[in-house]
Amino acid sequence: MEIASAISEATRPAVPAAASLNIVDLSISDIRTSVSTLKQACLDSGFFYVINHGISQGFMDEVFAHSKRLFDLPLEEKMRLLRNDKHRGYTPMFDQTLDPDNQLNGDYKEGYYIGVEVSEDDPRSLKPLCGPNIWPSEVILPGWRQTMERYHREALGVAKEIIRIIARSLDLSGDFFEKPEMMGEPVAILRLLHYEGSVSDPGKGIYGAGAHSDFGFITLLATDDTEGLQICKNKDAQPQVWEYVAPLKGAFIVNLADVLERWSNLIFRSTLHRVVLGGQDRYSIAFFVEPNHDCLVECLPSCKSDTNPPKFPPVKFEEYLLQRYKDTHVDWSTYKD
Fold this sequence. Notes:
Keywords: Iron, Metal-binding, Oxidoreductase. By secondary structure, the protein is α+β, with helices and mostly antiparallel strands. The protein has helices spanning 31-44, 57-71, 75-79, 144-169, 180-183, 258-263, 317-328, and strands at 23-25, 47-51, 89-91, 110-114, 187-195, 209-212, 218-223, 229-232, 243-244, 252-256, 272-275, 282-290, 296-297, 315-316. An 8-stranded mixed sheet has the order 1-2-10-7-12-5-4-3. It has a 4-stranded antiparallel sheet with strand order 6-11-8-9, with no helix packed on it. The protein has a two-stranded antiparallel sheet with strand order 13-14. Strand 1, helix 1 and strand 2 (47-51) form a beta-alpha-beta unit.
């Protein structure tokens, strides 16, 4: 294992190794191969790469360029786009604290939430996490909204392909999760992320993003070429063993989240991960795919038996997600521009 060279041999800590992750190729026509590869990845680590997903590298580069333009705006301008109670808009540094027991401050990152666009006169806007997005001025960032709306559509299409393979890997029909009451109108959230060029110090509780598992079904992550993401394949192990996930050009890094862990009765586990920074700016784009607001998340029929009863009580997804947001985000309700 590599060792940090600046410290004496006796005291220097081990440098996390690179994780070995399976690669799921969406261009393969043999669904059995895809199901087998994905299922093994879910059982091994809950993280895997997805390649040949259909979103061009040229468009990905355009999305990253637009993301950088947003974060390059003066803070005063970004704060005019501050996150609202629907979780749309800008999130400044330290807005989120993902591991409060072990973090000195909040996460050293800023972000921007974009959800499914729902107009204020749409009955769905009465739901806690439904409504219009907050968009930067077209004068300040021309073409920004159109680019993000297109990316949201295309990423959701990729996610649905992956979810069909996950369903088959759980011995369900490929369209199982597409039922209207489950993921007919999924909560699909795009979040742009920028980690400023600070240096993390886990020993002092300083992280780009604290250790956490994601809240929903799956997450599709696109990253630049700056390393930082670490995973812990066994979150119950003591001590925890962390491994870097290397960026892979043109690929999504996909991870399982907490709702899938509950649905699968711990057959598939959500995976603990964090971001540890080394002094370089880092940009990533997370796409969180989650059930309907009203979906009742309870053990799947293929994941329980007389000898393996459900390990979690049923929960309404909306209530679950709102509580997770409340636990990890700053309350901006009293903020004055």
